[in-house]
Amino acid sequence: MRGQPGSGVADVGRDDPYWLTIPSGISATTAPKSVSPAGFLRAYPSGMTVPAEATRAMQDALARADRERRRADRSAGIAQRHERQVFAEPHMQTLHARMASMHRRAQRLHLAAAAMHVAHADRLKTWADGSRRHKALPGLMVGVAETAGADSATVAVFGPGLVETLTIASDDTAKAAQDAEFALGEGPAREAATGDRAVRAAGDALRRRWPAYGSAVGGLGIHSVAAVPILPVRGTPIGALTLFGLAPNRTIGDLDSLHMIADIVAYMLLSDNDTKSTPGSFPFADGDHRAIIHQAAGLVSVQNGCAIPDALALIRARAFADERPLESIAADILDQRLRLP
Fold first, then answer.
1. Are both 189 and 311 inside the same structural domain?
2. What is the per-residue pLDDT for 38?
3. Which pLDDT tens digit goes with each residue over 44-83?
4. Which domain holds residue 314?
5. What is the pLDDT of residues 12-47, one digit of tens each?
6. What is the distance of C-alpha 117 from the center of its chain?
7. What is the pLDDT of residue 285?
8. In what order do the strands lie in the sheet with 163-169?
9. In a domain, 285, yes or no
């Protein structure tokens, strides 16, 4: 077996399902130091008022970072125990090596998540200093985009039949791009999730690969996209992380880094559900569940005796024909101002 320096543990590398590559935008070699919210906020000039919304968001981000640091410490301790047993129990060497690798991966994931939360708190602090208060309070997806080296980012979670159930966007451009994919039924997030692989396209290749979608996002000023599936270890994709570049000929990150960031997002979506957190403080609480669209699809399904995916297709077709947002069509259906087909 090939060993990690100083550990004696098999290093199975990228083919190991528990392996985790740390992107250059995240420092995860050591745990971020525990930072108290009070200490974080003391850096403000005397007499300066920090908006309550920003204060709560910063406190929550720092609390999450501290929890991730403690989880990383626990994972490291478990990994060390298995590392010591690799040669102590030769007949169990493979099992201990695999368990050590799994917990080292968990350690790296927790550290990377902690670093992302700390960076988010710092971003909120910058916003609260007054220079950016004319803009909306930045969400965690802004940091996801920056870490990936992209201008914008979205996460799309899919349900049965590839029905989009949740969208989380870093900004209006990303939200509009994901809305276009949802309305048109084609695009990088769907391809990444269904194919369980990363996809990229830029410039003319973007329009050739997805003609309708490519034209729509081109109108938003997007020149390049990259999408990677979001999935648990050895799991089926539950969605996709999509990154957008606004500069011509821009390459968004490397695939190893993008997969790592998608792993962090998946972890936050599936595991970071601490009941002690402030209500509404879930890292992606600003996500769009497309509730109004799914309610309208349910009504259309009943009215026409068709399946939900077919009802969604009818709503998409009407929105495309009328050049209106899906939400607008859905509202008319629910208010009984419009009946499909």
1. no
2. 52
3. 444 445 577 788 888 888 998 899 999 999 999 999 999 9
4. 291-334
5. 343 444 444 445 555 544 444 555 555 544 454 444
6. 13
7. 61
8. 163-169, 152-159, 239-245, 224-230, 199-202
9. no
Residue ending a domain, among 100, 128, 156, is 128
Q: Residues 189, 179: contact at Cβ < 8 Å?
A: no
Which ranges of the chain does DSSP label H, i.e. alpha helix? 37-41, 52-88, 93-128, 140-147, 172-184, 188-195, 204-209, 211-218, 255-271, 291-304, 308-322, 326-334
pTM (2 d.p.)? 0.73
The answer as to whether 99 is a domain residue is: yes
Peptide bond into 309 cis (omega under 30): no
pLDDT band for 335, please (50, 70, 90 cuts). very high
The answer to whether 153 touches 145, Cβ cutoff 8 Å, is yes
Scan for tokens 């990363």, then name that residue: 198
Inter-CA distances, 241 with 15, 120, 154, Å? 21, 18, 6
Q: Are residues 124 and 41 in the same domain?
A: yes
Please name the residue that has the structure tokens 């209006």: 172
Return d(Cα 111, Cα 32) in angstroms, integer.
7
